[in-house]
Structures are given as structure tokens and as C-alpha cells.
């Protein structure tokens, strides 16, 4: 899949992105950071053809898995960066181009000494605030309760974002985010999953 479909779906991280040129239209654009094997992104692309999707992932086997799925379902509305997400946000994406950013089950870096490696940090929120359109959203999901509360605290303290939860806590899983095999297994074992959705003011 990497050899056969790379040129069709993968973007060059050395060049700024022009979404309208890449997708051949002007449509709401959604970004998934760290898409794993790409099942969620492929699901969204095939079920929401009116939207365009970008995925960022550094794990090449996961990229290959997504490329194969996109080819099999003939998706024209999804493209991929196989590169570091922060660098793509900083160097490639135009400002105010994203209608939504998805971060599903990121590495929780559970040890306290590694918390600084977690992606949701003030500098990351600064990037989101620049790349999201007004009214665009950031949606994170995790099965690590401590990380969920840490993200909630960071986002709640940032005046540029407002919590979409009616009670100011966490959100129900929206229909557009499919359950993963990993998530289903965890739910059967009694593990919790926390969804946070914060909207750019």
C-alpha cells in the first residue's frame, strides 16, 4: 500500500498546503492527529463525502493500512502526512483553515516525569487557536482518566475555547467518532472513555 498508493494520498511535509488545490474544491476541513491504523479517519471520509479530511501519523504501517482502506473505498476527500504533527501544524497548514481537530486516544505518557511529552500543552493550544476557524472545535478522546482531567483543566483555563459539554465536564461520544476495536474491548472490561469537545470562540 505504501508503494502503490503513497503518491495518490500522501502529502509532502516540505511544502505548504493549499487545501483547495489538493482537494479540488472548498469544503470544511478536518484534521486527525495520530490516526493509528486509520480506521476512524477512513470511516469519516466515506460517511461524510461533503467534508475533506487530513490525517497525520508517523507510524508507517498505520499509514499503509489507511492508504489501503482509502483506495478500497475510493475516497477522494482524504489526504495523509507521514510526519511529526507539530511540524505540520507549524509549517504546512494555513491559518484559520480547520473546522475541527481530532485527537483520539493519544499516547498518555502515564509516568509523571513524562507528562511534558503529552501533546496537549499550552504551545499546542496556541497552534490550535491559530489553525482553527472561529466556531471550529477540538475533540479529544482518551481512556486514561488522569489525562482526560489534565486536558480538561488546560482547555478550561484557556479563554479562547468554550466547553461544548452542557454541564462543563465531558461530552457523550458523537456519532461521527466510531468505536474502535480497542475501545470496545476496554468498555467490555469496564474501562472508561472520556470525550472532550472545546469550541474556538
Q: Would you mind describing this structure in some detail?
A:
It contains 8 helices and 7 strands, in the order H-H-E-H-E-H-E-H-E-H-E-H-E-H-E. The protein has a 7-stranded mixed β-sheet, with helices on both faces. It is α/β, with parallel strands linked by helices and 201 residues long. Strand 1, helix 3 and strand 2 form a beta-alpha-beta unit.
N- and C-termini, Cα separation: 40 Å
Radius of gyration: 16 Å
Shape: globular
Q: Would you report the number of β strands?
A: 7
Please trace the helix and strand order, writing H or E for each element.
Answer: HHEHEHEHEHEHEHE
How would you classify the helix and strand content by structural class?
Answer: alpha/beta
**Strand order of the main beta sheet, please?**
3-2-1-4-5-7-6
Low-confidence stretches: none
How many helical elements? 8
What is the mean pLDDT? 94
Summarize the main sheet.
7 strands, mixed
Percent in helix: 25-40%
Give me some keywords for this one.
201 residues, alpha/beta, 7-stranded mixed beta sheet, globular
Outline the fold blueprint.
Blueprint: H1 2-9, H2 19-23, E1 29-33, H3 39-47, E2 52-56, H4 60-72, E3 78-81, H5 85-91, E4 98-104, H6 122-131, E5 132-142, H7 145-156, E6 161-163, H8 181-188, E7 194-200
Parallel strand pairs: 1-2, 1-4, 2-3, 4-5
Antiparallel strand pairs: 5-7, 6-7
Amino acid at each position: 500500500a505504501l508503494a502503490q498508493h503513497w503518491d495518490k494520498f500522501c502529502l509532502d511535509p516540505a511544502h505548504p498546503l493549499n487545501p483547495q488545490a489538493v482537494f479540488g474544491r472548498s469544503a470544511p476541513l478536518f484534521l486527525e492527529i495520530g490516526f493509528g491504523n486509520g480506521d476512524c479517519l477512513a470511516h469519516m471520509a466515506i460517511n461524510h463525502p461533503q467534508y475533506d479530511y487530513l490525517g497525520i501519523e508517523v507510524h508507517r504501517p498505520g499509514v499503509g493500512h489507511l492508504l489501503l482502506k482509502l483506495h478500497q473505498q475510493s475516497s477522494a476527500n482524504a489526504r495523509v502526512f507521514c510526519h511529526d504533527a507539530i511540524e505540520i501544524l507549524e509549517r504546512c497548514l494555513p491559518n484559520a483553515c480547520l473546522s475541527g481537530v481530532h485527537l483520539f486516544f493519544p499516547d498518555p505518557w502515564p509516568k509523571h516525569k513524562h507528562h511534558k511529552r503529552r501533546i496537549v500543552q499550552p504551545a499546542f493550544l496556541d497552534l490550535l487557536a491559530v489553525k482553527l476557524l472561529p466556531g471550529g472545535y477540538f475533540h479529544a478522546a482518551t481512556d486514561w482518566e488522569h489525562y482526560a482531567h489534565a486536558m480538561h483543566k488546560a482547555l478550561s483555563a484557556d479563554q479562547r475555547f468554550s466547553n461544548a459539554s452542557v454541564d462543563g465536564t465531558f461530552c457523550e461520544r458523537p456519532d461521527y467518532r466510531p468505536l474502535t476495536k480497542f475501545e470496545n474491548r476496554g468498555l467490555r472490561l469496564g474501562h472508561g472513555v472520556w470525550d472532550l469537545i472545546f469550541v474556538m470562540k
